[in-house]
From TrEMBL:
Ranges of residues in domain Nitroreductase: 10-186
UniProt xrefs under InterPro entries: NfsB-like, Nitroreductase, Nitroreductase-like
Keyword vocabulary terms for this entry: Flavoprotein, FMN, NADP, Oxidoreductase
Organismal lineage: Bacteria, Pseudomonadati, Bacteroidota, Flavobacteriia, Flavobacteriales
UniProt xrefs under PANTHER family: NAD(P)H NITROREDUCTASE YDGI-RELATED (PTHR43673), NITROREDUCTASE (PTHR43673:SF2)
Protein name: Nitroreductase
Pfam families: Nitroreductase
Record's keyword annotation contains Repressor: no
Cofactor(s) required, per the database record: FMN
MF (Gene Ontology): oxidoreductase activity
Length: 210
């Protein structure tokens, strides 16, 4: 069995973290780099990743996350916040980055730049918000996989009130919306769920070959 598959069998949605164990700066930087390198549509990355270190803020977020203890017990709290819309300035900045990074004249990218703007402008604001939110799930996937390799636990969460989290963190003023929460740290030895067998569909139930 490959190490990747072994890591996937090892990981689970941790219910109780050991609050005495903290992620090292080196490991946190590795997780951040894994998130940064995540795929996204067009490579646009229409989101921000917020690392909430303040115990006071985490205590405020906890009630908005259905009182889940992981919010305050985990080593780190990460919130993926998608942009509610995409304006042309953001697209222009993206292409300026491409031009600089790949040493390509900006003029040579104008065709693709216009195509991207056209496709994005076709979307309503609600559709843009939904599309941007979907991109955060790709980044979360990279975080889960990188953390499993480092034997760091992650609990992905959709169980929270985005409107409350937005208000607590001042995200509305930034044009952002809390899409996903991930608590990151180390499982507590008292977390009984770590010993439960992983339940997934069989290959026969899950896959269709045409």
């Amino acid at each position: 069995m490959s190490a990747f598959i072994e890591n996937q069998n090892w990981r689970y949605a941790t219910k109780k973290f050991d609050s005495t164990k903290k992620i090292t700066t080196e490991d946190l930087n590795t997780l951040k780099e894994a998130i940064r390198l995540s795929s996204s549509s067009y490579g646009l990355q229409p989101y921000k990743v917020i690392i909430v270190e303040s115990p006071e803020l985490r205590a405020k977020v906890q009630p908005a996350a259905w009182g889940q203890s992981q919010i305050v017990e985990a080593s780190h709290l990460i919130i993926f916040a998608n942009r509610t819309t995409i304006n042309e300035d953001e697209v222009d900045a993206f292409f300026e980055n491409i031009s600089k990074t790949r040493e390509i004249p900006l003029e040579a990218l104008s065709g693709y730049q216009g195509f991207m703007k056209g496709k994005i402008n076709e979307l309503s604001e609600d559709a843009q918000n939904t599309w941007n939110s979907k991109q955060t799930y790709l980044a979360l996937g990279n975080l889960l996989n990188a953390a499993a390799e480092l034997k760091i636990d992650v609990t992905p969460m959709e169980g929270f009130d985005p409107a409350q989290v937005n208000e607590i963190l001042g995200l509305n003023e930034l044009g952002l919306n809390a899409s996903l929460i991930a608590t990151v740290g180390y499982r507590h030895e008292e977390d009984a769920t770590q010993h439960q067998k992983k339940v997934r569909k069989s290959n026969k139930e899950l896959f269709i070959t045409l």
